[in-house]
Amino acid sequence: MSPAKKRARTYDSVKIRAAVTAQFGHVLEGVRGLTAEQFALPTRLGEWTVRELVAHIGMCVDVVPRLIALPAPPKPGITVLDWAFGTAANASALSDLAHELAGRDTDPAAALAATAENLAAALAETPGPRVLDFRTGAITLADFLVTRTVELVVHTDDLNAAVPGLGIPYDRQALAACTRLLADALAAKAPGGSTEVRIPPYAVVQCVEGLRHTRGTPPNVVETDPLTWVRLATGRVAWRDAVAEAQVSASGERADLGALLPVMS
Question: pTM of the prediction?
Answer without folding.
Answer: 0.92
